[in-house]
Amino acid sequence: MFPKQNDKLQVMSHAVVGFPNLDENEKAIAGLVAAGVNLIELQVPFSDPVADGHTLVNACYEALKHGGSVRATLELAKKVSAAHPNTSFILMSYLNPLYRYGLEQLFRDAAAAGFKGMIIPDMPVEEFEPWMPLLDELGIAPILMVTPNTSDERVARIAKSARGMVYVVSRMGVTGKQTQWGEEFNQYVARIRQHTDLPLAIGFGVRAASDLQALTGTAEVAAFCSKYIEWQRDSGSDEAAKLMRQLLVDAQLA
Amino acid sequence: MIRSENGYFGEFGGRYVPEILLPALTELETMFNELRDDPSFWQEYLTLTQEFSGRPTPLTPLRRLSKELGGAQIWLKREDLNHSGAHKVNNVLGQGLLVQRMGKKRVIAETGAGQHGLATAIMAARLGLDATIYMGADDIERQYSNVFWMRQLGAEVVGVETGARTLKEALDEALRDWAASVETTHYVLGTVCGPAPFPELVAYFQSVISQEMKQQAMAQIGRLPDEVVACVGGGSNAIGAFAAFLDDPEVALVGVEAGGISLKDGEHSIRMLPNTGETGIAQGYKTLFLQNEDGQLGDTHSIAAGLDYVGVSPILAHLSQTGRVTPDMALDTEVTEAFKLLMKTEGIIPALESSHALAGGFKRAKTMRPDQHIVINLSGRGDKDIFNIARAFPQPEWSDFLQRESERAKELFDATKEGN
Q: Does the active-site annotation cover A7?
């Protein structure tokens, strides 16, 4: 399940479904769980991932060549949520593959497959609002994003529909580049806290143990995604799991 | 005048973007809503297009060709005579006025054929702005002369190496840049696509084409034309050519898409005809996209880089659904024939994009009566296509010349290197 407010920092990590291939996904996820990761996003690869930097863009292209799809993601979720009952799996996708599948059916099937939450970067809160009764009934949490330039009025609207946790985009830009943590960032986090009691997941630019240490005490979750996919790409899933374990040790989160 | 309902045209349009881009889009929308009904703003825009781009562009009768085809009287709206050589500059000059009001110092743009990138580079040079142009790596190869000029004008041209390396990927990359730079940078979106308010905003500026066309038709023909034909990539020249006629049901509006090599998946860029594009949400908006059953956007092909695009304007998707706009298509082979026919019969060198409108328009003209009139929007000139045309009509002296020129360029380059 999702952490509670003020719980110690947890790492959320990532799989792009079909990258490097579907069999490897299962092994990589088992490795992440063994390393101590309890929140894992399963990303449906998409041809046009506009919020992602080059690491995830390229992983998406590879994944599409190796059978990544909405259906493959739901099948994988079924398997891994049964195999790892203490891990929360989160569906991450751009809107079109889900829209094409049919949103209502998708929400039902995602919940049935064991997904606990969903991150859909190009689905604004207005589009989520009509679905909220169904999502609450299904118990699948829309994890909505706020960004440094989101107005207070809008953060309040987002907080109303957010469930599970609020995804705090750490800086302007796309995934896969370093973020500077500091006073300005802390004020931004404090501003978001005024609108919600949900735990905060910090994403974009979390790439090293020092980032995790900087976020310990500030947030409940840190999304460690692009860097992990780079490890997986460069050294394979086994080595990536070892590096993840070491990361958690180095950040004193093991 | 084209107006959305909260950013939608029927079921199409909207604003499906990462949260980070929303403030800039609402700021742009607020500014646009204040300016669009201000006659002095439209007058400021018209003056600028007159002073800088030579508007109004003429409506040219094709007397010899009309006689030869034996059908309707064919007229060309000469957007090719704009500064920069295409209609793209209309939108860019308009957005330049907005950039000045916003006080932003940097602009970015996506480009396919390079005409929008070129127009943006021209505007940036004129206003003293930094410009970064995203262009698919394959399109750079196809339209190198435009890349050359963009760089000469001082713009940075970034080749996009992901995916099919064409316009779709260039648009994705421009959105990524904007997500990081939105507070200081304006995204000069080049067509009537993307998140609201862009479709409406670009349509507003491009509608100058049909406003002139209407006046010119009344003056030169003495009545409205029976048909207006335009090529459709994203759809900006088509919307521009159609906008003022939407409430004139006697004027048929025809949008010609790129039929490419064949109707097989990946070999064309037709989105509006049956069994082609399907409703989807990507690149910030809802429209008809070429896509597979998993919702992955498809590969496209056209001989014309500017039409090689996977989506289509939500305004056109809607108008084709209501039946107001008739979709049509032209194959690559028909396009090169129409290109040659116009050039040899009327002495006008059209862009390959615009040659789709010619191919569709000529075909229709032949079936019409000589007392009928058809206006084809010649959206751009063909100078930029010199390499593609040379490939379509191979001549040995051209490849010999390229060889000699390449050797000269290399010698010159080596000499500068030694000089350093």
A: no
